[in-house]
Specification:
Layout: E1 22-28, H1 32-43, E2 48-52, E3 65-67, H2 68-76, H3 80-86, E4 88-90, E5 92-97, E6 100-106, E7 118-120, H4 123-135, E8 140-144, E9 147-154, E10 157-164, E11 167-178, H5 185-189, E12 195-209, E13 218-222, E14 231-237, E15 241-247, H6 254-257, H7 260-271, E16 278-291, E17 296-297, E18 300-302, E19 308-309, H8 317-336, H9 343-370, H10 375-388, H11 392-395, E20 436-439, E21 444-446, E22 455-461, H12 468-480, E23 484-490, E24 504-506, H13 511-515, E25 522-526, E26 532-536, H14 541-551
Parallel strand pairs: 1-2, 1-11, 2-8, 5-13, 11-18, 22-23, 23-24
Antiparallel strand pairs: 3-7, 4-7, 5-6, 9-10, 10-11, 12-15, 12-16, 13-14, 14-15, 16-19, 17-18, 20-21, 20-24, 22-25, 25-26
Helix pairs in contact: 1-4, 1-8, 2-3, 8-9
């Protein structure tokens, strides 16, 4: 399929249909987060109505930097590969102070991962690919130029008043997912606010079309010769488009600064006189770090920028929104199927509230470092950058935007604390690490691809398999708990188990044994959103059942297992 001009694509308007007046699940907002949620819920077997007040995708590159975690999530719903094929993959970032480089970092220094640390891809491509997947899905209906203008809820669910070119209609639903952005009309209509901090600075974004022989890296300058006393960020995108961000200062006139005759000299100062370029898109922006107090209000749930927003430094906005969708979808699915109590949805607010706070903290710190507002802050920043060239301790203080990383839900009530000693990053609440595997027919694949949006019990077997009695008990548990998938992960030197009762994978490079600290064997319970729920050194079906009950927020009479100290 050739590239479509997604910026001019006009999406088909359709008047309200007879069955639009009562729906089980409605998503408001067809940006990356709303489309991701709609696809995830549809893949889980739910009919989704997606409405948006516009009939175009985004213009300009907007969000361009998508993380490995977002790609892992998009892989699960079938659109990740297309994003990677079009995007510019990168792992390396460089920091410059004045006229010299002071630091270089690698965001994915180890091999054996399916996806890069980040790809750069214009938001209109991201939205276009998600839109096409949604349009092709039999369980998703989309209504463009359908604007929610009023909302209420009672014991029966949520009622929307929707305005269209053909008039207004009432739309009732069991659940409403508000993904309608930073200026969320749903949030305002239910009387909620986002509170936080507005940063008094302005930045110019320019999408520049040009052919540059630069590597696909993130370059950030502090006080460069071509833009004194300010900062500049450069990123490559597909189609020979480059994103340039110029700090302007709070007193800059946004209307004047966006005029081509004022933008072109800034870019020429960066590039020199020998490089030809054209402007594709220009915008001047300010930003805030703010959030709603709670992301759930009865049957209305908020995700992405409608729930909280951060500064663009660190690529946290869109990536965190995709993680919101990932966290919410499996919980809402199980509640709608009556396989989990309503309390499970409250953990969406708890876990993603922690993520919002962490993102706001990192985003605020980045902005304070990039745009110091006092002489002392400026002196500290410049001394840090000067020392970073020679001293590793200073590099840890350099903050050109701490780039998005998935949050570990360390204190989630859905976790089972460790009772055994483990090392490594795969702690309860953490996202599951990836690695290469071999499936039974000798096909090479990736570990995260084995997780199908359900609970997974992974039994790691380095030198031997559990005895038949324990495997039989696990089989009985799986039969009683149809939410569970089970796989055996054999070490690279372990012969396949004959007549295995579970699917078998081989960790042919031994990387999973290392990343899960599974030497000598281990058992992991992994949630549908690929976060670790629990882990043990030995297979114990009863312990797995208790942890599954906990991870579903089901009532339990058993006391939680105490962590080892």
């Amino acid at each position: 399929m050739g590239d479509i001009d997604y910026q001019t694509l006009e999406l088909p308007y359709q008047p309200p249909q007879a069955h639009d007046h009562r729906r089980s699940l409605v998503v408001v907002g067809a940006g990356p987060i709303g489309l991701t949620l709609a696809l995830d819920m549809a893949e889980r077997g739910h009919d989704v109505l997606l409405i948006d007040d516009n009939n175009h995708l985004s213009t300009g590159s907007r969000a361009i930097c998508f993380s490995k975690r977002a790609l892992d999530i998009w892989d699960r719903i079938g659109v990740g590969q297309r994003m990677v094929d079009k995007g510019v993959s990168w792992n390396i970032g460089k920091v410059f102070f004045r006229d010299s480089q002071v630091w270089q970092f690698d965001l994915l220094p180890e091999a054996g991962h399916r996806r890069p640390a980040f790809i750069n891809l214009q938001q209109y491509y991201c939205e276009g690919y998600l839109y096409e997947a949604a349009a092709a899905h039999p369980r998703i209906s989309m209504r463009w130029k359908h604007k929610a203008v009023a909302v209420s809820q009672d014991d029966r669910g949520v009622t929307l008043t929707v305005s269209t070119p053909d008039g207004s209609y009432n739309l009732e639903c069991d659940w409403l997912l508000a993904c309608d952005g930073a200026r969320s009309s749903i949030r305002k209509m239910i009387g909620q606010e986002s509170r936080g901090r507005v940063f008094h600075d302005r930045f110019l974004i320019a999408d520049v079309k040009m052919e540059l022989d630069y590597p696909p890296e993130r370059w950030f300058w502090f006080d460069p010769p071509f833009h004194r006393n300010q900062s500049v960020l450069l990123h490559s995108q597909p189609d020979n488009v480059w994103r340039v961000d110029f700090q302007l200062g709070w007193n800059a006139d946004p209307v004047e600064e966006a005029k081509p005759e004022n933008v072109m000299p800034r870019i020429r100062a960066l590039l020199g006189n020998d490089i030809e370029f054209t402007l594709e898109w220009v915008s001047v922006y300010t930003f805030a770090c703010e959030r709603m107090e709670r992301f759930r209000h009865g049957k209305i749930l908020f995700a992405g920028d409608s729930a909280y927003r951060v500064s663009p430094f660190g690529a946290r906005g869109a990536n965190s929104g995709v993680e919101d969708a990932d966290n919410l979808a499996w919980k809402l699915d199980l509640v709608m199927r009556q396989e989990a109590p309503d309390a499970l949805l409250d953990t969406y607010c708890d876990e993603r509230g922690v993520a919002a706070d962490e993102n706001i903290m990192n985003s605020s710190r980045s902005t304070d470092f990039i745009t110091p507002k006092s002489e002392i802050s400026l002196l500290f920043r410049n001394m840090t950058l000067t020392l970073a060239k020679e001293h590793p301790f200073a590099r840890s203080l350099v903050n050109s935007g701490r780039l998005s990383r998935p949050v570990t839900y360390t204190h989630s009530c859905l976790n089972t604390p460790d009772r055994d000693l483990f090392n490594g990053v795969a702690v309860p609440g953490a996202p599951a690490p990836d690695g290469p595997i071999t499936v039974a027919d000798a096909t090479q694949g990736w570990w995260l691809s084995q997780m199908k949006g359900r609970f997974l019990v992974a039994v790691f077997c380095e030198t031997h398999y559990p005895d038949a009695t324990k495997l039989d008990a696990l089989k009985a548990l799986q039969a009683a708990q149809p939410l569970l998938d089970v796989v055996l992960v054999a070490g690279p030197w372990l012969a396949p188990l004959t007549q295995a009762v579970f699917p078998m994978l081989t960790d042919h490079e031994g990387l999973l044994l290392q990343r899960y600290d599974a030497h000598g064997g281990a058992v992991y319970l992994i949630r549908p959103d690929q976060h670790v729920a629990a882990r043990w050194r030995t297979l114990d079906a009863q312990a797995i059942e208790q942890s599954l009950t906990r991870a579903l927020a089901r009532p339990t009479s058993t006391a939680p297992t105490k962590a080892s100290t």
